[in-house]
Amino acid sequence: MTAVRPPSPASAAPEERYLARWAVAWATGDAERCLAGHAATMAGEHTRYVQPLFHAARGERGLRTVGKLFALIPDLTAEIERWAVADGFAFVEFTLRGHLGGRPVAVRAVDRMTLDGEPLVERENYCDPLPVVLAVLVRPRVWPLLVRHRVRITPRPRR
User: Fold this and answer.
1) pTM listed for this prediction
2) Side by side, which strands form the sheet with 89-100?
3) Which CATH number characterizes residue 91's domain?
């Protein structure tokens, strides 16, 4: 695969500037920096987060669902494969990587983000969560983290 041109923080398009900040936040493998980067782009308590295995949620509560992924995979990073922006939308195809229970795990995903300029209005994630679910099931040392961080694996609610 050829290297993808990263989104530019100097772009005239607010959607591309948003994706540039997204890429920086996810590149660190540091939960606090990543979540702070996301919090800075939210459109307040109205921002909606939708992703597999978690109920849809708004604002800080929605952001905490992203934080639960870091509770399970503390060194989580995202590498952008492809991206596109237009008219208040940003799409990013990426691979999440990290270590769950001391062993590597990777998941390919797509985020569709609805933006109001640069603030995030809605983020919906599309991925197959089966690799993470299977990794959790075969790594019993991870199970206490599920309880401690109140991670409940649920089917995605219908709209």
Assistant:
1) 0.85
2) 57-58, 48-50, 120-127, 103-115, 89-100, 77-86
3) 3.10.450.50
